[in-house]
């Protein structure tokens, strides 16, 4: 079975190795057992049910609330030669009937349904299907403790009970401990095993900017975009009005941008989303209504224009950047008024206490002076031993100092003002401001008036927030955000306890250091070639009416621009290139690479040369694969290529004369076309692609 799953991974999806936990989840599913998969956005959840779906002799049902994501995933599956379709409210009655016919006739391996449609048809034609696996995507939607509860998900337990011997798989990117237990109970999972993948997306840099005035924030965003020409990204805003204002501002500045929010009609939203997915629009300014169904792999940045309302939502939203594994950036802007507004929303909604607690955790993250990735991962139960080195705090570690006297000044001001005022009034008193409110309340008579005039307003605000985070004061939002001194704060004020604060760092004074997150490739990327490959991908995407990244993602194109494959064997070694895509697109991409190589010398040692050097050192192919962290299939491809080039490789020892004879017959029956898949199928899938590849090399070389 292991050989079969690895063969599918390479030949269908084009990858040499599984990501952590994927293989274990797949094997458990093949054994007919339930699983609960908790993996970050872009962590490879889909592969966990897609490979079992290809192994099972029947159909896999995938339940998802995200209509646009269904469409993307089905397109991607079809591009890899897999029989898949979706059934939701976006298709016509005629299309529905076509999907039903294909499903009943056994012509589908995967069928995606929205929960509403699943419940509606569960007692009709769905009963006629040979269902072998059910995957519940976005499973947090079933829990009241989740951040995106959907009532229709609660009916899925009945469907689960109707298929007691079919394995179920629940998948989500965001669920805390309370939500996890609830999900298992609500879906009726049987003795399921919880798989928690690392939530550490090392390729995402994290930066937080607080209390930035609106005009300065817009200018900073313009400066940010100016340094990232043609980059694709999402800017999340709190309100619909904000999305339109920010999009308008960026459009006037010459950027390819559109806004997206729930107030638009369906056609407008659909077009906006499609244009973004197809790279016709580079930047989307949106409320959180956008992105849940986006599987776009080349989003290079995510900016939060406002504070998110919880860490689950924030993590999921930044996770839409860098899904191809390449370095990507996230920037969070927040202001205390965002916090106050969300607090008011929480008061008017359900689960008020829980919402406010999660909002507080979000603010603590934003105000933190320690490694942000540590804070974020600890929320999901994962603990880093070292600082990440790829967040703003790690890049610019704050200096700390004895802040006892400074804190005592602020605490004294709060006490003398009767604990009735907020941060702004306190700072104005400490700085000796001469405004009307201070005169009206006669705060200029207080002993604390003007005792902190040597400290800027920005720095005072930072210190007061630090004091709140350290438990010296509380912000009473129900009392117009008045500051109250806690028991710990009184101890500091009385000199019974010392406190340390960190020095605020202005964004303008930050020293930008090189990001630690890097994508490792074996050679230098030829930027001109990468640009040409992107142009070709874009033209194909227009012709085939599918998102460009479904053809090949940026990571795969960069590997092409680094490895410079010009033969079928070389092209198949590129991560992300499966047999179906190689046959469909390979020649066009290789033609561009061949033209490039004819006018440019490679700037690196070819990957086949590295394999040859290890072969000459006496290493067996399995040892070479281990040494180079490549699959044995890839190494045999290299050896075939080297043999064809006349290098001293004893290829005959790796393939039997009987196998060569079988391949020769099929090869000649297929008019000597060097296409591996038809030969593989003609030999009843009994001879591996590696064996076919080596056999053809020996046949053609020795004729």
Structural description of this entry:
The structure is a single chain. By secondary structure, the protein is of the alpha/beta class. The chain contains 32 helices and 17 strands. Strands 3-4-2-5-6-1-7 form a seven-stranded parallel beta sheet, with helices on both faces. Strand 12, helix 12 (311-318) and strand 13 (328-334) form a beta-alpha-beta unit. The longest helix has 21 residues, at 579-599. The two termini are 37 Å apart.
What are the salient characteristics of this protein?
703 residues, alpha/beta, Rossmann fold, Arc Repressor Mutant, subunit A, 4 domains, seven-stranded parallel sheet, 17 strands, 11% strand, elongated
Short description:
The chain is an alpha/beta fold.
In total, how many beta strands?
Answer: 17
Outline type: elongated
In which range does the helix fraction lie? 40-55%
Q: What ranges have pLDDT less than 50 throughout 5 or more consecutive residues?
A: 507-523
Order of strands across the main sheet: 3-4-2-5-6-1-7
| Beta-strand fraction estimate | 5-15%
- Domain count: 4
Instruction: Assign the CATH architecture of the largest domain.
Output: 3-Layer(aba) Sandwich
CATH topology assignment of the largest domain: Rossmann fold
* Discrete helix count: 32
CATH class of the largest domain: Alpha Beta
What gap, in angstroms, lies between the N and C termini?
37 Å
Mean residue pLDDT: 86
* Main sheet overview: 7 strands, parallel
Sequence-ordered SSE layout with sheet pairings:
Elements: H1 2-13, H2 22-30, E1 35-38, H3 45-55, E2 59-63, H4 67-79, E3 84-87, H5 93-104, E4 110-113, H6 115-121, E5 131-136, H7 156-161, E6 168-172, H8 177-187, E7 193-196, E8 204-210, H9 214-226, E9 232-236, H10 240-252, E10 257-260, H11 266-277, E11 283-286, E12 299-304, H12 311-318, E13 328-334, H13 336-348, H14 352-367, H15 372-379, H16 392-395, E14 400-402, H17 404-416, H18 423-430, H19 436-441, H20 457-469, E15 473-476, E16 482-485, H21 487-493, E17 500-502, H22 527-544, H23 548-551, H24 554-563, H25 568-572, H26 579-599, H27 607-616, H28 621-628, H29 632-644, H30 657-669, H31 676-682, H32 689-701
Parallel strand pairs: 1-6, 1-7, 2-4, 2-5, 3-4, 5-6, 8-13, 9-11, 9-12, 10-11, 12-13
Antiparallel strand pairs: 14-17, 15-16
Helix pairs in contact: 1-3, 2-3, 13-14, 17-18, 17-21, 18-20, 22-24, 22-26, 27-29, 28-29, 29-32, 30-32
